[in-house]
Every structure is written in structure tokens, then in C-alpha cells.
Write a structure and sequence with these properties.
4% of the residues lie in helices and 65% in strands. The chain is mostly beta strands.
Length: 802
Amino acid sequence: MKKTLILFSLLCFLSISYSQNQLETLVVDGAVLDPDSEPLPFAALMVYENDSVMIKGLTTDENGLFETELPKGKYFIKIQYLSFSDYTTPVFDLTEKNVSLGQLKMETGDLVLQEIEITAQKSQMEFKLDKRVVNVGSDLANSSTNVSELLDNIPSVSLDIEGNVELRGSQNVRILIDGKPSGLLGNNVADALRQLQSSMVEKVEIITNPSARYDAEGEVGIINIVMKKESQKGFNGSINSRIGHPQDYGLGINFNLRRNWINFFLNSGIYYQKSPGEGGEYQEYYGANGLEIYESESERSRGGLSNKHQFGADFFLNDYNTITVSGIYRFADGKNRSEINYTDYDSNHEFIKSSRRIDMENEDGEDIETSISYVKTFDKKDRKFTADFKWLKNEDLELSDISEFDLQSSASPSLQNSRNREGEENFLFQVDYVDPIGEDGMFEAGLKSNIRDVNNDYLVEELIDNEWTALEDFDDNLIYLENIHAAYAIYGNKFSKISYQLGMRAEYSDITTELVKEELENNRSYLNFFPTAHFSYELNPENQFQVSYSRRLSRPWFRMLLPFSNFSDSRSRRVGNPDLDPEYSNSFETGYLRYFPNGSLLSSIYYRHRTGVISRISEVDTDGIEYEIPINLGNQHAYGVEMSFNYDFTKWWQSSINLNFYQADTDGQYEDQVFDFSTQTMQAQASSKFKLPANINMQASFRYGAPRETTQGRRDAIYSVDAGLSRDVLKGNGTLILSATDLLNSRKYSGYSEGDNFYNEEWGRRRVRQIILNFNYRINQNKSRKDEGLPREGGGGDDDFG
């Protein structure tokens, strides 16, 4: 009944909102080129009546093309684009027939910065008031990897040994797809990101101090992954294929068909991957016989067959009303294997025994997602109303057969099996309205409801006396119900050289966690307000200062609440805590943006104060089993300095350097234990791109993460080198890319932790060096600058294979 009411309300809303422009109209079109006669995407066009009254605004598409319908009359168009002189067309008569203005070529002019945005090289990164936009296609090292590895290459973002995403050193970051929660991420975000392919990603937005229009979730900010969706006229698309070592094979397509008032799009791919990894551990603990010691070495392989299909259509009802309907289907069939060899010693390091544990896991996942979006524009420039509805459902089933052998005995191995079924259903409804006020002002408001139902049924059994017996502590069903309702309002304006934006977001959260078999239920309901403020001072067109503030929260994600764990390692288990509370943060950030003729410098100073900090601590029992448990630890003060520098030294050499220095001071206690600690560390990334003869592009990048303190120990430094080569073929319609990630095979995590009764050292390698050959073929598409990673001079090249 609830689903029917939501769908019925949405359809009624769309039918009421739709209004048809009754005026008789004709079409004007054209193409905008840069001074080198290359298509100029996203140029701003303003349509004026002959009496100089502006009636409409629009932009060119990715190929520099534009087209719009206008009532009969006489008009002229003014075109603007960063660093080019304004271009104004002659007056044209649109009274008898359609008009084509042909190719309109811009000329180089004085630097002009519009509004509160500074744009660096489109092929690399764009800086905006509240976010950084990374255009993925420019990075040759990322051209063939999955999204997990793609994020690991982005400044300020890193991954821990298990693939969990960190932003500025914190895992409390919100990850969205196309600006919204997505079933593609499922309940295990780390695994989901490894299954998504980077070839399907258009760009990644890093939002370190989000405004009130965004969800308050994510203590350090938001990472928004924007998927590809073409909207050019006619038929166009691309085909991507790849082959790599270790096993990595894939084929993907991205097609688009635009005919007048309708645009169809399809993004589909099928992939097979096997990712080998390895690790080791040394642990001393006080057990039943005093000090005991063990070592372990592990090898694992994860992956299998996966596919993802996104399809839909845009319906352009008229110049003012657009409806987009889309769907996503993903299926994965994973075959995972892990092998761990244990060696036990006494307190004198004398050998006691050795054993081997093997886990063979089948992991099947399925995601279904549908969405309807409505966009209404108005005669008034930038005035817009949008409504979105999304339904998603996913299910993941993990089945493991586990055997453990005593290598000094001929006895039969101990046998166990586990079953973990995770399922989620999610409804999202959102409306947003934007209305310009005066010359520079803007008001924005919106409502959002998100209804989420997650369940996890987990069971571990052991073969005892020829009967499979459930292990009491690993047999239950967790139900997680989350209803979040939000409203926000933003007002922004500009006076003199100061731009500002003030916002307020209110969120009501109703969350219930239930352990069915234990008959334990925990309900939390709370209303929170989240103010935001952004200020920008433009000293001159080349220099800009920014100051921002936001209040945010981080709700414990589903896996943190799950009181079960993966059973692959009998000596180390990650468990959850159903009683976790959300943590809150207040973030302040100030930045300086300097734009050069051939580059840009962004430097930021930030500070975060967190309460109820969620952190994992380790406990070891008398059997030597380590349990990692998330807890609400206490308070934290974190502050840092971040710099991003991009510069084009020549037409054939681009370079960028990104540095992040920060310190975090945390204090708190748990069960009468004090866990105060302080860490100082840094992250660095340097990258250079070269345009070589024979139409070859090359890129090399270096990443370094300094050592840092953790709640109970220390994580060692880590570094890696990536490289890539690309070459256009088939008269510029195709591109070959050879890339290598972790070229030196050096990306190994290591560190130690210690407690009252244990000391532990561990290391791991989530993936080994990978080499991939990728081929991209474009159909009826001009190669964009972000596809090749460097600015182009002239056409796509006449080279063929060989």
C-alpha cells in the first residue's frame, strides 16, 4: 500500500506540474568553437530579443553544439566562456523558418572569472566553492581499473587494507552515486566499489564541507561518483574492452540515441576479475598457559564474473519540462578463496604445532534500481524545480565451506560452513526548488524522505559427531529500519567582491535495530539541525579567498552494527556493535585559490571537532582470538593543511602536486581503559603527463602516505608508483591504453597494535602489481580532451594500427 501511494502521488504531481508552451516556435542551432577550432563544451549562451531583453539561457553540449526553440521574432545571442572574449552574433530573423548560425569561433581574451568558481584544466580537475571535480578520463593509470582503485588515486582520498574509503584520513565519509544513495553500493561498500568499473564513471566530486542541500551524513564530507550518460543528438557511443594480468577481462558499451524530444541511453558491461592478495600476522598474548605466540601467513583470491546495465530515456516534453526514467540491474557471481597457515609457539619461541585453514566462498549479488526524475525550468534564467523518486533493492548471499587441518596429525579436519544473506529495500523521494533573486542572489529549498529496510540473516555451523550444529554466538537475524526525513533552505548573494551562501538543514531520524532470535530491540529517534555557511572574497580575477563552516553527523553504517563476523580467519574477527550512537562534527575550512595563466594553486586550512567518535579497538581472549569492535570512543580535535598545485610547464608537459598534512588528537575511554592518542601524518601525490611524438601520451604518478598513530598502535608508511601510455588509432576514433598500477609492487600495509594482554604485528597486500591493456572505440564522437588526458592541438590524428 505504501509503495502504491508513493507512485500515485508522484504521477499526480508530474501531471499537475506539466505545462505546455502554447506559442508557435521555430528552431535556432549552431556550434561554438575555441580559438583552435576545437568544439567548446559547456559554453554559456544568453538569448536576447532585438530590444536587448534577455529571455533565455542555455549551454553547449559536450561537442560544443546548441539548439533551442524560440517564439517567432528577431534575436541575437551572446556567448561567454572562461578566458575567452565575449562573442555576440548578428541579429537573426526567426519568423519564417528555422535558422542555423553555423560555427561560431571564440577569440582569446583577458581572464574572466564568473560567479564564485575557478576552473583548472578541464582534463584534470575543477575547483568550485564547495567541491573539487576530478574528471576521471584524464588519468591513464585509472583508465582500466575498478572504482575502488580509481578513488585510491584521487587527492585527499585513500583506502585502508580492507578497501574502506578514507577522506583526509577518516572513514566517516558519505559515498553517493549521481548525487544520491544507490543500490550499486549495497551493504558492503568496499566490495561494491571493487565490482564497479571506472570506465563507467564520468567524474568524481570531492566535497569536503558540503552545503545544506546535501545530506548531513558524512563527518569529513561527501564523495559523489557521477556515472556516464550521453545526451548528444543523433546516434553515438563507445565500446571499451580490456585484458590484464592478473586475470582481468572486460567488455563495456555506452550508447546514446537522441531524436528530437527523446533521448535513449545505455551503459552496460560484463567483466571477469581475480584479485590476489596476501598478508601475515605475529601475535603475543597471555592465554591459559601464560605467554603464547603464533604467526600466520595468508593468501587469498577474490573476484569472479560481474555485470552491470544502466538504461533509460530523457523525454523533452518542451523547452521547460523534462522527465527522465532509468533503471539499473547488476549481477555478480564471485568465487573467493583464502588460505591461512598458523604456527604456534610457546613463550620461549619453541615450536608447538602448525595448522592450515581454507575457506571456499561463493558470493552472489543482485541489484535492481529504478528512478524517475522530473525537471521544470522557467523563462526566468536559472529558476528550476526538480522532483526525484528512486526505488532500489539488493540481495547478497555468501556461502562458505571451511576446513582446518592440524598439519602434525592424520586426524580428519574440522569442518564448518557459514551462510550470510543480506538484503535491502530503499525508497527515496526528493523535491528541490531554485529561484534567482535580483542580479546575483539565489534561494534554494527542498524536501527529502528516505525509507530503508535492511536485514542480515547469519549462520555458522560446525560438524560435531557427524551432525551439523549451529554455533550459538553466530546464529541470528539482524533487522535494521532507517527512516530519515529532511528539509533544507539556502540563500546566497553577492555584494561588491564578497559572495556568500547560508543554509540550514533539519533531519529527523527514526532508526530501529532488532536481533530477532535474541529478542533485543534498540530504537532511536532524534531531530537535528545542521547549519552551513560559505563565503568567498574575490580580491581580483586571479585571487580568491574562501571560508566555510558545516555541522554534520555520521550514523554507524550497517556493518558496524552487525554482531557477526566473517569466519575465514579463526584467530581474528571483526564484529559489530548494535548499540553504537552517531557521532557529530563541526568543520571549519578556509582556502586560498590562485589562478595562473598556465595553472592554479588551492591551499586550505581545516579544523574539525568530533564528539562520540567511532573507533575500532582490539581485544584478545585467552584462546588468542582477536576481536575488533567499533565503539563510541570520545572526542577529537583534527586540523590540517592541504595544497593542490597544477601547472602546464609547456604544451606537452602537465604536472600536479597534492599535499595533505594533518594532526588529530583523540581522548576517550571504554570499560575503564583510557584510549587517548595523537597522530601527525601526511599524504602526498605527484603526477606528470607528457605529450610525446607519434600521438603518444604518457603519465606517471607517485603516492606516499606517512606513518600515523592509531587508537592502539601505529600504521607504517606506504608508497606506490603508477604509469600509463596511450595512443590514438583508427584515424582518431580509437585509443589504446597500457597502464600499470603499483609498478614497484610496493603498496603493502603494515603496522602494530597492543593492549593489556597482547601485542600484534600485521601486514597485508590487498592487490599486487597490475598491468592492463585497454582499447576504446568511439562511434560518431569527437574525442574529448578529458579522454586523452592532455589538451589537443588539431584533430584526433591519422594514425592507424602500427
